[in-house]
């Protein structure tokens, strides 16, 4: 058998390598912003779902006690029997723990609400982590 001869010109040229690098960088420049937007939308959806869960538990609290917790009692009234006025008539634990929002900030509660004047507002401060801004996500959306 005849041995294979190695071609001394085999391999990639600098131009070919540079072309591949340019293609990869271009693809990353197009895909990364879209991935970032998808992650942001996912966090907003997660916050909205959890707000709906909290609002459902607040509705159960209100059914048992005739009114939702006061702003000073807050969401903690779903986990521990509140002290102070108004005292709940038939308190029971509705949630074991309330997780922070996807940005690591505690969910907020106001009664009466700014957006729901005759009811309560439950909301996340959103990506900017500051309350009462445009990017807040709440039970009024």
Description of the molecule:
There is one protein chain. The protein has 141 residues and is mainly α. The chain has a single domain (22-86, 93-138), classed as Glycoprotein, Type 4 Pilin. Helices cover 37% and strands 6% of the residues. It has one helix spanning 14-65, and strands spanning 108-110, 121-124, 137-138. Strands 1-2-3 form a three-stranded antiparallel sheet, with helices on one face. The protein is elongated.
In a few lines, what is going on in this structure?
The protein is mostly helical.
Which properties best describe this structure?
single chain, 6% strand, elongated, three-stranded antiparallel sheet, mainly alpha, 1 helix, 141 residues, Glycoprotein, Type 4 Pilin
Helices and strands in order:
Layout: H1 14-65, E1 108-110, E2 121-124, E3 137-138
Antiparallel strand pairs: 1-2, 2-3
CATH topology: Glycoprotein, Type 4 Pilin
The total strand number stands at 3
Q: Report how far the terminal alpha carbons are from each other.
A: 78 Å
Structural domains: how many:
1
Regions with little confidence, pLDDT below 50 for 5+ residues: none
The CATH superfamily name is: Glycoprotein, Type 4 Pilin
Assign the CATH architecture: 2-Layer Sandwich
- Helix fraction bin: 25-40%
Radius of gyration: 27 Å
What is the overall pLDDT average?
Answer: 88
Query: What is the string of helix and strand elements?
Result: HEEE
DSSP summary: helix tally? 1
